[in-house]
Amino acid sequence: MARINLRPWREELRAEKQRQFLVMLAGALIVGAGLVFLWQSHVQGLIDHQESRNSYIENAMKDLEEQIAEIEDLKERREELLSRMQVIQDLQGQRPVIVRAFDEMVQTLPDGLFYTQLEKSGDQVSIVGMAESNSRISSLMRNFERSDWFAEPNLTNVSAADEQRSGYSRFNLSVQQVVPDEDEAESEQEQ
């Protein structure tokens, strides 16, 4: 007997192939989605890693900037301290000079003359005083010229004194203070 297949086998085969195609398509989509997810996860991991490195670098830069600012502050303090120390050393070095200058002022002072005001600005010493006569003022200027500690006496004003000191002349004089070499000062002290 002849077998006749009346079933629509071609349509079933087509439907089966279409189902297999859809399953393969769904599988490919799932695998593709999984690969995209893995790729995105990998890229996001790289981005997160780079962002963490960037934030580490930014934090390190902030720390370094703070340290640089602290170093600059310390350098400024150091410079201030060094300048203060220099001023103190200069003052310590000038202490004997000031004493010697005052001693020299007393030694140059002739009889019949006295100072009423002394003012020092830099190396310039301004003197206001009273003298019995103009010859005493001249003698004072000669003494300043001979002194190793003073130079260039300049008389700016001579006037009659007030009524309380009749017979006296008031004078204004300026003189340069000079610090002699140590050898000259020592030889002068020995004399």
UniProtKB/TrEMBL annotation:
Which GO biological process entries does UniProt record here?
type IV pilus assembly; type IV pilus-dependent motility
Keywords in alphabetical order, please.
Coiled coil, Membrane, Transmembrane, Transmembrane helix
The transmembrane segments are 21-39
Q: Coiled-coil regions in this chain?
A: 47-91
Q: Which Pfam families match?
A: PilN
Q: Which InterPro entries match?
A: Extracell_DNA_Util/SecSys_Comp, PilN
Name this polypeptide is given: Pilus assembly protein PilN
